[in-house]
Amino acid sequence: MSADWSRLLASQEYLGELYEGTTPTADSCDPFYVHIDERKGSVTLGFNTRTLPANAPAEWREKEFNAFDFYLAFEGVTELRVTGWGASEAKNVGLTMHEHCFDVVLGSRDSGITFRAAAARLARTHAYLASGSL
Question: Which of 15, 60, 116, 133 could form a disulfide with 65 if both were Cys (CB 3.0 to 4.6 A apart)?
Answer without folding.
Answer: 60
